[in-house]
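Hi F.,

I've been meaning to write this up properly since the lab meeting, where we talked about keeping a consistent format for the predictions we share between groups. The idea is simple: the sequence comes first, exactly as it goes in, then the structure tokens exactly as they come out, then a line or two of notes. No screenshots and no reformatting. I'm using this chain as the first example so we have something concrete to point to.
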Amino acid sequence: MISFSCTNENYRNDLMELIRAFEQRTDESFSLDVTFEVCGEVFRVAVRSDKFENFLKVRRFNYSPSDAMEAKRLQKRYLKIAIYDAMVFLTGVGLPYGCLTGIRPTKLYAELGESAHDVFLKDFSVRPEKLALIERIAAAQKGIRNPDPEKVADLFVFIPFCPTRCAYCSFVSMPVDRQRKLLRPYTDDVVAEIRYLKRTAKKLGYSVRAVYVGGGTPTALPLEMLDEVLKECKCRGAKEFTVEAGRPDTITQDALALFKERGVTRVSVNPQTFNDDTLKRIGRRHTAADVERAYAIAKEGFDVNMDLIAMLPGESAEDFFRSVDRAAELSPANVTVHTLYLKKGSELRVAGYRSTENAEAERMVDYACAKLSASGYEPYYMYRQKYTSGNLENVGYTKPGKACLYNMDIMEEDTTVLAAGAAAISKRVTPSIDLIERNANYKEPLEYVKHFDAVMQKQRAFWTPGSPLTK
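Output, unedited:
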């Protein structure tokens, strides 16, 4: 048990994320009291613990912030560094990504420029092998990042329905059989929102380079409704058009024919695992053989993305290795390796499941990286999440020339996103002044439909230059 207090409530939640990463890595009980002061250009952090009598950890940093925002950013950084050093001293355990708690380590790496390598290694205590992975991703992204962030955008559409709800899922998605009455009004509203966003893109001078229809499982919609959505999503000049077909039990010849007719170029076929027993445990109504059947027909006309998840309940490292091996043999365009994370809304977390085998998690993701690299894949995007097994990462791997642009754009946050549907978040990116503005829709599909007039009112305000919502 670790108790934690901080004299500055503005930083408490961020710092707690770092403390939480150590909770399952120690069997000791101790408390931390954190105080800090800023005096001119000197920053000092003191961490006291009742585990060691009179223990005091002090870090001093010299810095010259040019404005208040930079000062706050640096203060938070130095607090994390000092607390991480103290936690390593107290527990004898280091973390793969050191004191980094953010979602986008590759974005931070790019922002730091030439100093990034030394800062990540020496200040943030990122392990050398994880730093090497970040640097491989940064190299892979050269030449495929958004060439004109001020004028090139992406279109995202969220379809929040699935055949069943997976035990690990915390997304806003619903079993489609229980939502039949909502499908028609939801489809009508999301189509109207897409139409508005496309008109707005044209008016503001944006071209769309990537379209992504995600979920949920969009192919859980009746085909006639899905057709209405896809027809509206088509954007002239887009370099890719992705649909998350996800569940292989929803992938049919008719669905793929529709995709081809509407200009879709990329399809997700997500096994998560090739172990049938695990698929049953996590609530998926398909088998590994269904995945292979769906992949066989999808690969004929589309680039295919596949997802795997390390640390699913009941799986050993060897089980996961077999899934990685099979994915590599099938050779889709992309394989994304997720590390299981359990947010509060997931069935597994509610049931009390906890993943504490950190070394096992590291074995799994390390094996996936080595195997996929040896099979001709290159890592090209990364993100991290709270409550992730082993405090690890999610990484997308691509065959040469097959990177999913939308996945990279959304993770690096360098591209404006016009987003439609429940839980969708539009982003307007202005790199010249280092500004990202956001507009979030209602999360729940029913609320989205009930308050659609308000949704559109917010969208119009957000995309109108000079609107109070954007100031």
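Notes:
The CA atoms of residues 48 and 56 lie 5 Å apart.
The chain is about 40% helix and 20% strand.

If this format works for you, I'll send the rest the same way.

G.
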